[in-house]
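From the pipeline queue, job 12 of 40. The input is one protein chain; the requested action is below.

Action: predict structure.
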Amino acid sequence: MTLKEITFTINGQVQTLTIQPWRTLLEIIREDLQLTGTKEGCGQGECGSCTVIMDGKTVNSCLVPAVEADGKEIITIEGLSKGDTLHPIQQAFVEHSGMQCGFCTPGMIMSTKGLLDRNPNPNEAEIREGISGNFCRCTGYTKIIESIDAAARVMKKKD
C-alpha cells in the first residue's frame, strides 16, 4: 500500500510523518508521537476521551483520518500547560475536583477549551451542552461543571 507523508503542527512543534493512509489521528498522536494524554475510549466518536483541537475546533481524533491533519494545527492536552504551569482550565479541574479516575479528563478539558474559546462566559446550560460529547463513568457532572465555571471566571479576569 502507498504511504502518505503529512506535515502538521502539534502543540507548537512541526511534525512530518510518513503513515499508512488508513490510520487515525489518535493513533499517530499516541503511537508515533508518544503523546499519551489523549485517550482512546470507545474508538467510535461517542465518548470524547480522544478530543483534541484541530485548527481551532474540537474533534474526536479517533474519527479523523490522520491524512486530514496535513497542514493543520493540533493542540492536545500536553499542549495546554506551559512547562510546569498548568493552563487555568487544568488548574480549575484540580482545585475543584473535576476528575475522578482521570481517564475522561483530558477530553473534558479539551472540550472545555473549545467551549471557552467560543464562549468565554457560558451559563450552566451552555457548559452542559459544551461537554455533551464527553462521557464520564465515575461521577455525576457537578464537579466538572463547577470546574469549568471556575476556569471561565479565572480566564475572564486574565483578559
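Job complete. The two ends are 50 Å apart (CA to CA).
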